[in-house]
User: What shape does this take?
Amino acid sequence: MTNQISKEDFFQRVYKIVSQIPYGKVTTYGAIANALGIKSSAIMVGWALNAAKNRSDLPCHRVVNRNGLLTGKKHFPTPTIMRELLEQEGINFIDEMVDLKRHFWKPEIR
DNA sequence: CGGGTGACTTTAC
DNA sequence: CGTAAAGCCACCC
Assistant: This one.
C-alpha cells in the first residue's frame, strides 16, 4: 500500500501522536507502534521519544509501557516528574502503575 | 558492514 | 517476583 514510513516520517508521526494525547490520558509504546504500522518495534517509539525529549512541546510523561509502568521516568531530569505530572492530571495510580483501564488513550492511525 | 545499546514486548523457566 | 532470551529496528562507533 501507500503506507511507506521513512524514518523521518516515523519521528514526525510519533511527535504528532504524542502531542495529541489528551489531558488526563496515557498511551503505550506498543499502541503507538501499532498505530504507525511497526507494531513489533515498540522500542523504536521509545527511541523516537528519546530524540523527542529535545522538543519540550511533547508530553512524553503520558507515554508508558504495556503495564502502565513509568519505564521512561529514568530519562527525565528527575524521576519523580513523570509520576507527579500524571497525578496532577487526575490519573489514577495503582502502586507504580497507571490505571490503563481508565486512562488509556488509543492513538489515531494516519 | 559488524557490534553494542535501548524510554518495548512476549515467552519461558 | 526474578532473570534470560529472542524479536524488533534506528542510531552510534
User: Anything to note?
Assistant: Strands of chain A lie at 27-28, 63-64, 93-94, 97-98. Residues 7-19 of chain A form the longest helix (13 residues).
